[in-house]
Amino acid sequence: MSYEEMLDRRSEILKRNIGTMILKENQQGLSGQENHLYQNMIKELHQTENELNTKRNES
User: Fold this and answer.
1) Rounded Cα–Cα distance for residues 47 and 41 (Å)
2) Average pLDDT of 38-42?
3) How far is CA 43 from CA 2, 33, 55, 56, in A?
4) How does pLDDT run across 12-31, given as a tens digit for each residue?
5) Model's pTM, two decimal places?
6) Number of domains the chain contains
């Protein structure tokens, strides 16, 4: 698995997990710890997407 494929897979997993957290937030709200985790996942997704775009532009 190449680095680009790994970033792509990581992005997919983060998007799925963020979607789950959004559903939970809409249904019952998030605890403080869950909200912190949610915010960190969003930051991680942005970083991963940025790395992926940089890698694709290099090719």
Assistant:
1) 10
2) 98
3) 23, 16, 18, 20
4) 999 999 999 999 999 999 99
5) 0.90
6) 1
Residue with tokens 């957290």: 21
- Sign of the four-CA dihedral 36, 38, 40, 46: negative
Angle at alpha carbon of residue 46, lines to 6 and 27, rounded to 5°: 105
Sign, CA torsion 48/50/56/59: negative
If phi over 0 gives left and psi between -120 and 50 gives alpha, with beta otherwise, what is residue 29? left
Is 11 exposed, middle or buried, given 0-12, 13-18 or 19+ CB atoms closer than 10 A? middle
| DSSP strands (E only) in 1-59 | none
Distance separating the N- and C-terminal Cα atoms of the chain: 17
Angle at 52 between CA 41 and CA 35, to 5 degrees: 5
Domain that holds residue 7: 3-58
